[in-house]
Amino acid sequence: MVCFFSYSYFLGTCVCSYEGCPVGLHIEAQGLWGTARLESKLLVVILKTQVCTALGIREMWYFGLQCVDHKNRLTWPEADKKITTTQKIKDGPLHFDVKVKYYPEDPSNELIDETTRLYFYYDVTTVLLNNQGVPVILRELVLPGGFDLVSPSFTVRDVTTKLSEPVREQYNLTDEEWEAKVMNCVSSHKNMSKDDAVKEYIRIAQDLEMFGVTFFKIKNEKKTDLWLGIDALGLNIYEYDNQLAPKVTFPWNEIQKLSYSRNKFFVKPVEASGKFLDTVWEKLRAEQEAREVMEKRLQDMQRLMQENEEAFARTQTVLEQYECKVNELNAQLEEEKSARKQLENLQYYLEEANRKLGLSIEERQRIAQERDEINAKINEQNQLLQEREEEKRQFEAELARVRAMHEAEMDHFSEQKQESDG
User: Fold this and answer.
1) How far is CA 334 from the centre of its chain?
2) Separation in Å, CA 334 to CA 321, 327, 338
């Protein structure tokens, strides 16, 4: 068995050739490739698991293998079926398309893995490029080369050469005006990473009414052609020439019962006074073939709705887990904020203490300087006092000497006077 993948804005095509037991498997997609040996009784679910694993897709429950069955009908083979029973082996290699089968309610937030988002982008791009009713910003910004619009090598000349004629006819704009508008869009997203660009693309695309909707052709009681659309939110009835705005909507939680009889399909709402849907499948060439096809399609629809509900339940579980994780992270963040606040308060206290300590040091330095000045003055006064005391002692000694000399002269004069008188 040989399986390969190639991409041109579609998710992938798996071509399998049956050569007996065991068989080989080769997978290749955008530079990713691998080989394996498989049993001839390989089940569809095993092949899907191995393909998703080879592509690096972890959230593989969103994806499925699509093929054209023995009666040339496009279908999703059941997971527990052998791949050799899904198509006629004698007609050549087995062909499987790897596509997004289930869409979550909010893909931009519920898709966790980057690889899953990338392949959702490929699948959504394929749908949008084949639909004339989608916005031009989504249709024409998907150019060959993937994300060339945000690459440095992109030039304004790439715009006019890659705009399709149907888009040109919808808007009365010249090449210069197109270039200005597109380059304005490019300049606003030029610094965006590849994963962020994919997220933004999915966020814009999921707001479209036809996003994630699988359509089936039906008729109402008046034999009017209509479309039945199935998505993650419920059932929608569309007019045949308008797949953008649903005419009637049945959310899953408002549907009580789904039933069918031959080629008629019935939807019973939960409320007795609610809308009741009675539709007829499109009439084919042969009545027997029509009955088989309609029953097969109804089974596919019922299985698709059931798997949608299961995918919704799984998504809710994942969301609850992530909400718990987010709550834990929020609690940790609050603790970190509280700890940071305490650190900031401590830092402020330390800065204030340092400021006060700095002021105290300056004050002590000023007082010490004044003390030194006063001590210097005291020392100066003491030295001056000592000089004055020394000068006083000298003066007193001189005074005593002079006084002694005077007294001696007076005694000598008295003696001379007495002698003269005698």
Assistant:
1) 22
2) 20, 10, 6
Q: How far is residue 299's CA from residue 76's CA, in Å, rounded to a whole number?
A: 11
Rounded distance between C-alpha atoms, residue 197 and residue 117, angstroms: 10
224 closest CA partner among 257, 208, 199, 248: 248
List, for residues 253-281, the tens digit of each pLDDT value: 887 777 766 667 777 777 654 455 555 44
Residue after which a domain boundary falls, among 235, 268, 283: 283
User: What CATH number is attached to the domain comprising 253?
Assistant: 2.30.29.30
Rounded to 5 degrees, what are φ and ψ at 189? -125, 10
CB 334 within 8 A of CB 340: no
Query: Could you tell me if residue 264 is inside a domain?
Result: yes
Q: Which two tokens stand for residue 41?
A: 């009784």
CATH, residue 48: 3.10.20.90
Give the start-end residues of each E strand in 17-109. 23-29, 32-38, 63-68, 74-75, 94-100
Residues 6+ apart with CB under 8 A from 216: 227, 228, 229, 230, 281, 297, 301
Say yes or no: 78 and 153 in one domain. no
Q: Does residue 313 belong to any structural domain of this protein?
A: no
247 and 188 both lie in a single domain: no
Q: Tell me which residue range forms the domain holding 152.
A: 107-205
pLDDT digits (tens, 9 = 90+) for 309-337: 777 777 777 777 777 777 787 777 788 77
Question: How do 248-251 and 255-261 pair as beta strands?
Answer: unpaired
Domain membership flag for residue 332: no
Residue 330 lies in a domain: no
Read off the pTM.
0.52
- Cβ atoms 98, 14 nearer than 8 A: yes
| 277: CB partners within 8 A, 6+ apart | 235, 237, 248, 250, 265, 266, 267
CA–CA dist 138, 117 (Å, integer): 16
Which of 205, 239, 265 is the endpoint of a domain? 205
